[in-house]
Every structure is written in C-alpha cells, then in structure tokens.
Here is the input.
Amino acid sequence: MGVNCHRTFRSRANDNAMLPDNEIRFDASGQAWLDQLVQRHQNRASQLLQMLREIQEHYGHIPHQIVTELAQRLCIPRARIESVASFYSFLHLKPHGEYRILFSDNITDRMLGSQPLMELMCQQLWLQPGKVSEDSLVSIGTTSCTGMCDQGPALLVNELAITNLNHQRVQEIVHLIRNRTPLGDWPADFFRVEDNIRRSGLLLGNALAPGELLRNALSLGGTNIVESIKASGLRGRGGAGFSTGLKWEACRNAQGSEHYVVCNADEGEPGTFKDRVLLNQQADLVFEGMTLCALAVGARKGFLYLRGEYRYLLEPLQAVLQRRRANKLLGTSILAQAGFDFDIEIHLGAGAYICGEESALIESLEGKRGVPRNRPPFPVTHGYLQQPTAVDNVETFCQAVLALHMGAEQYRTIGTAKSAGSKLVSVSGDCQRPGIYEYPFGVSVREILQDCGAVNTLAVQVSGPSGICVAESEFDRRLGFEDLPTAGAFMIFDDSRDLFEVARNFVHFFAHESCGFCTPCRVGTSILKQTMDKIAAGHGTRYDLSEIENLDRVLQTTSHCGLGRTACNPVLHTLKHFRPSYENKLKSLMFSPAFDLDGSLARARQMTGRDDAGAHLREIE
Amino acid sequence: MNETFQLDGSAVPFEPGQTVMQAALAAGRYIPHLCYHPEFKPHGSCKLCTVKVNGRTVASCTMPAEGGLDVESEIEELNALRRSLVQMLFAEGNHFCPSCEKSGNCVLQALGYDLEVHATGFRHLYPDRPLDASHPDILLDFNRCILCELCVRASSEVDGKNVFALSGRGITKHLIVNAESGKLSDTNIALTDKAMQVCPVGVILPKRVGFSVSIGERRYDQRPISAQALDDAPRQTDASGNCAACEGTP
Here is the structure.
C-alpha cells in the first residue's frame, strides 16, 4: 500500500513578522527574486495564478507592493491581479498568519469530530475562527472538503495536508506553532496520506509498464485510437459521462493553431478522493493516458490541473514527469517517432471548487478568475487560449489506456450496457473500512455497503452534494449512467445521523464555492444557506420549506452552470426521504421573520458584559 | 436574412452570428434584460433575459439564434423567475429608491415596476459597502452595485483604461477600482468615459447634477421599460456615437 509523506517548503514569513500590516521589506534581493519568478514564467500573464501561488508560498501572503511590482512587470492592471487573487480562497492579499490552519469542513470530517478539535485549537491559541492572532502568528478557519475523508478529520497548514487529527495531535500542533517550529521540522507522521485501497479491479490491479501501451498505440495513429475509444464505450468519469471517444474526435477535427490536452485533477466534490490515490499510485498511467490523447487529437502540450489541496503531490508528480522525459515518453520525438512531440505542465489550483467545471478550469489555467464560460462554443473547439482542447478526468485518462490495451470488445464486457468498464468509488462516513473500492459499473449500493462494513445505514450520498441522496428503500439501485451516475463519492450515514444537518453542511458548501458570476447562484445559495440556518436555529416555519422550493426552481432553471443548478439537490432529496428531520425543527407557525431580534442584541450584551436572562428577549410564540 | 425563429408565436428574422436577444431587439421585440448592452459582447450573468428555447431555459443574450427555434419569453413562468431574480438583486445590495438620485432612470427599478415586484421577498443581506467620494467630479456608491460588469467592460473595451474590476468570490464579490490606493481619485477616469454612461443603477454618478431632471420627468417615469422597447430597438450607436440605451452625461 502506497504511502506518501510530504514536507516540502518552509514558511519564510518569519522574516517579516515585525513589519506592520501589508508591508514587507522589498529590497534588492526581493526585486531579484520577483524578476526570476516572472522570467521563469516567461512574462506570461496566463501564468498569473501560478506566480501568485509562489509569491504566497514565499511571503505567506501576497504583499501590496508585490502586486504593484508584478503588474508593472506583466503590463497588466493591478486591479486584475487583485481580482484574480481574491477569487481563490487560499490566496491572501493581507497577512494571514505565519501558520494558516484550515480545517476540512466536509460532513465526514464533522462526523469524525473536527468541530470540537477546531474549538480546542482555537481555545489553546487564544483565537477566534477566521481571525489572525494579534501577533500575526496563526490563523484558523475552515475550508471545503480536502479529500481526506477516509482518514479525517483533516486540516491544511499552509496548504499542506495533515490527516487523522485527534486530541493529542491537535495539542502537538499547538505546541509546534507556539514554538514557531518550521513546517519542515514537524513530525513526518502528521503528513502521512494513506491510499487505503480496499478493492482492486482492472485499473488498480493493472500490470502495464510505463510506455507499454504507447508503444503499441504509435502504429495505430490518431484516427484509429479515436475509433477504438469510441467503440469501447468509454464515458467520462468526472460524473457527466460524456463519450470520451466523441470528445477526442471533436477535438481532433477542430481547426486550431494548437491542440491541447488537459487533465482535470481539481477533485473538489466533497467526499471524493479517488484521484488523489490515482495520482499517487498510478501517475504513470494518468500521464500515459494524456499522451495517448495527445496522439489522438494532435496536441503538443498538456496540462494537469492539480487542486491546491493536493499541493503535496506536486513534487512526486514532477519527478514522474522527469523520469518519463528521460525515458523518451515525453518531450520531442516520443519513442523515437519523429513529429510526436508532447509535454505536460502541472498547474496548481488555490482553493476554488468551481474550477472543476471544465470551462472554469480553462479560465484558471489562463491565469484568470475561475468563472465558467458561456457555451457554446465548447472547449473541444474553443478551449485553452481559444484553441481545441480535450479536458478529461484523471480516472478517464487511466481508463482510456486500459480500454485501448484490452481492446474495445473486451472492455465492453466489463460493466453494463451503457456504462463500460470499472469505477473507483471513494467510500467514507459511517463504515468500518473507508477507502477506495474499484467495481465494475452496475454494482449495487447494498453490495458496497456490505463490503465496507456499514451497518444500520440510513442513507448514502452518491456523487457528492450535487449528487443523489439514496435512502434504504433504494439500496438496490446500481452505480452507472443508467441509474446512479457518479463521480465516485460515496458518503455513508447511519441511523445516528441527522440528514437535515448533512444537507445544511452541503448548502454551506455551495454558498462558499459559488463563483458569484450569475445572480441566481450568487444570491440564491446565500439565501438558501440562511434559510437552512434559520431552520436549524429553531425559527423555521412551513413558509421556509416552500421558500426552499421556490429557490430551487430559480436556481435550477436560471443558473449559469451546474453548481447553481444542483445547489438545492441535497435539500430536496433529504426533504423527500427525511421530511420529519426538517419538520420536527419547525415552529407551528406558518411564518416567522428571518430577523433574529435576540441575536441582534448579542453585540450589546458583549459590550455591556451581560448575559443574564434580562439581557435576552423572550420569543413570542 | 431569410431565416427566422419563433418568439412567443411570431417570427423573428436574424442574421448569422446574432444571438436570440440581438435578433429580438433588432426586430423591435423586448426581452427583459439588465447586463446586456448592444455595444458589448454578451455577458450572460444577470439571467433576467432567461427564455425557454425548445422547452429548455437559457439566457437569450448568449444563445445563438438558429432557424426554427421555438422561443418563449412573455409567459408567467418566466416572469415569475425574473421577479425572483430582481428580488434577489434588491436583497443583495442596499437599495433605497426614494433617496436615490438615479430613481426614475434606474433599470433595476424600472424592471421591478414593470415585472410587478411588490416587495423584496427575500431577507435583505445588508452588505457593508463604503462609498468612494474621493474623486472631485464622480461619486461611487457601491451599495447599489448589481455586478453586471458593464463599467468593467466599457472601461476596458471602449475607454482602454481598465478603471474597474471585480474582486472577491460568490456573495462577497464586489467592484474595485484600479489604483494602488484603491481610490477612484487615483485613477485616470474622466467624465466623458464610456464607463460613466453605462451603469444601469446608481453606482457611478457625476457629482452636482443628480437632480437636474426632476423626479417624475425621468425616463422610466414616462413609460415602463418594456414600452420603450421600440425606442431602444436597434440599440445601436448613431453617427455621433450616442447610444439610445445609455444615459446621457452632462
């Protein structure tokens, strides 16, 4: 079983700890560092996000002066830099502490006790969530699912993942922070990420050597590869299930000065972590798939867009790329075939779920805010830099290699009629053996529950918050595009859980991750969040439930992309199956105002130091 | 110009490359909209112009026109959605029409009246958005911003200045100006800029002329916004560069 340890860089923010807000010593060596950075990125504004990430790693935030200097060097308005930096939740335009702690706030982390652990850490460091400590040492907050659901609760410290949190580990972290111990000297054990592979199939059990398939594919040529992939029935593993062969064919046929291949490793759907394991275990297969795609569509350049939460995988992945270059599996004249030139660049995200949407991902690759584009045109004809681009999921690239290796006919025998091949399922939540399970498509929910040791299961959330909540009566439903399409998340809730709280967690997630481009999603997800919080606080009425239905109609029909269109799903699905868990929180009234009169007095109570009964308003029923 | 599509049961001709919105306006047919402006590339963010095309809801400003499309716009189902969207925009910002100098010339207000939005409906979010009065001739009241990006686009595409940009994400998204100080007075904006003319609400205001036209005599005081569709119909600039869709500057 693969294990990955990561301790890569030290925070250099210490040097600037004594300077006032937002100011740094930007001397000659700072100038030289910035010059070198900009040069390394060839003065290209399309590299802006990557530069900002490196600046933040260097300084701990993105200093005001650097924004000005960078704008001058790149000849772009400084407002554009601020605009991009402020879009990504891991980037900070103001100092945010030498140690920036973000607790993963997925429902599975919460079920494993993340909230009391965060409270403990805040208490011990004398800190409120979301705030920076007075001495600029540390900040503590929450972030969307970091993809460690099988070994949570988890957190990120300066974008590096720490898993398996418990009381003792939190105490140790507090101690290390208080002593200003550089991250590089923290115990390696903290950063250990297990693969937790519980069941292997044709993908995880493959015995292909690097380059083996590529060697065979060379003689086939682009058209035949596309035809074979089409014939194999392979469909995208990111959830939407578009035919991979058709996508490659459209990209191949599209006119453009360059063609591009993009691997979507922005695995942000809460509860999904299979790409993390594939990138750790099967990096060669992923890159082989991308190279195969390049051969098929005629691309010379590829990108792997790696979510910021998987920052620790960057160096190992770059080492694999380097080895493949050395072995002539990347670069010019791959496998001595003249004219077959292809190389891969890794781009890092910085905390924006929406960049998993392919056109937003392309915007982000171009160094912009990750806002989904208007479509048509689609990326296959107008993608990266408006050129034909094939964007596929990490797992899809792996499956493409296997489909070609096995042959279309053989590949189709696995899975179901409309869902060929196998699927990796990321199992987390209430079960004995969370981890990665590979099944042929068509496996039932019940079968997976049995295999992972789940008992007294109330419901399973298939394919994350935007997916489907499956109740016990439906456990015979099967994974596959015919029935339960999935990107792979499989979160299990037993009968001790309150499905209302699960839905509320998901609604908070959507509000946090909305890009803010379109009115319905920007405003609607926030209103939905407030409505759910109102119900949770005991102020909900039947009117609020009908309000949710109204919001759903607006979001579903008018949103710009899938995020807004599916943001109400968790509420609607849990309302359908678990209505009592909503209704038992409602007041008997038909209507109750959203304005919380007593809550609005909290500040006055704090200022006067009172918290007695007389300082509270009793509600009028 | 032989091909047509159906809009609410009657034919609308179009030229290749036009969107449903562009073709409809050119034919003197009104589809409610906020962030669309004839001089700029369609944006598709406000979603007020949502229509049903062959039964599927899409933004008409970005939907390419095609022969034979069946487009529905003036139906209660869509107007109900539009009402909710207008309500969302009112709830999101701080809009106090009675004390706003743009009242009567405001597209958001006019749409609200025309779509019969009687109340905000949703809980107000009351965001904290400080004014920028630093510039001697121009006031920025961010409270009314609906994030349509028209000023961003005008400043970048027409004025070539990039005075405005958007910052933040989701519900924290907000308008910023391009200056190290973050203040409008430190930009090169001018009263004659296109960016000064395109704000559909009352964010970008020339100082000292707010009430030169009395309330009651303003554009949408005369006739509802939908009835002015024909005035706006071509919605193209005339020879002198004036645009019927833009508010005049002093």
